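Please, structure for the following, as tokens.
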Amino acid sequence: MPANIQNGTRYILVNKKGKTVVDLSGTDSRSVIGWDRHGGTNQQWEAIQTHGGWHLKNAGTGKYLSLGARPENGGSVVGSDEPFIWELVEDSEDQNGIRVKVPNTNKDLDLSDHGNPTAGNPIAIWGSWKGENQVWYFEQARYVIVNKKAGTVIDLSGTDIGNYQVIGWERHSGTNQQWKTIEVNGGWHIKNVGNGKYLSLGGASAQDGVSVVGSDDHFIWELVRDSEDKNAIRIKIPHSNQNVDLSDHGNPTPGTHIVVWGQWEGQNQVWYFEQSKPR
């Protein structure tokens, strides 16, 4: 049956047998290999639904998971500028596992050498069989969002009822500090891993000092690279000058409120999205 995949979401593809992940080699941005998970963008793949199947687009390079040869046993899988359509199907024996198939064939994405976990092992296609090296777990990329000025992270407080307070807190990487990004038309949702709430606004208008909260509302944010630090992100309200801001000029005290404020050069409005592994 069709796999339960969300359009526009970034995933890390973990092999059931080898436990390594689908990695677009940083050496040539073409070779697709199994590698130990480090969560870099070359290991993140955006699932894009299209007529007839799915594209899998690398978050680091924009390359698409594709075939490097004819769909024959041992055929190479590569990163390509040309979108390739895959069929994503729930594994018949593991409802959490997915088979990545070449449409209208019996060929599946395969961690070669029967799922050899050695880093650098090629990923190829092979005729479908019951081997776990052809079964993949699509795990959503999750981030801890770290303030550049204070070093504290965006934390969804577990003490509120209704809309949840969003504060700066020392990093412990609990699920209330982990966030998934979901691309939508016009921007991004930022969803908490712990309780499924979305990063949102606590007021009807986006004035300076309005609180950022966790809410059931699917609020859309714009994620923009900082002009002075290309590794950092500004979280902005679309079509406005308002940025997510660690208040009191980036006060590192745990519990400091996170709000929106007009953009300025302060590092308390600049955030690092650091990959976090599931706990």
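The radius of gyration is 20 Å. The chain has two domains: 9-140, 142-275.
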